[in-house]
Amino acid sequence: MAKNWAICVGINHYDNMPTLQYAQRDAELMRDYFLNDAGFEKVYLFTDNSPEINDAGKPFNSQPTYGTLKRFLRVRFNKEFLSAGDNFWFFYSGHGMRFSDRDYLMPTDADPHPDGVEDTAIPLYLVTERLRRCGADNVILFLDACRSQESSKGL
User: Fold this and answer.
1) Is residue 153 one of the residues assigned to a domain?
2) How far apart are CA 8 and CA 114, in angstroms?
3) What is the CATH number of the domain that holds 51?
4) Can you give the pTM of this predicted structure?
């Protein structure tokens, strides 16, 4: 039987962007659904106040900062841990941005100004590239990314 694992990220509070009201709640509800109703084997949760993650080699802070998310993607996805027929799901609720023809997920400490985006936001291509390393046949992304820029492209 296929295994299902997931990451759920929900960010309400930002250092440099407007606060959101329901992003954290949405991520928690998705985590609960994945674990309790869909029978997922593992769900990693990153929210403003989620508990530490203890099964990825060594303890990880689960605050959705640039450093934490990038480090988790690098360390947890450095080798395959799922197999053919398995699925990995990624749920994100928070701010997103399109900059220089690239889509970005905005962590809690992201700088939305043009001189800060590339150094403080998570490029979507990096997320998909890292997630594909898990070994699952299917990588599914749910992106609820609000953004204020006017563009018909991207997120």
Assistant:
1) no
2) 27
3) 3.40.50.1460
4) 0.92
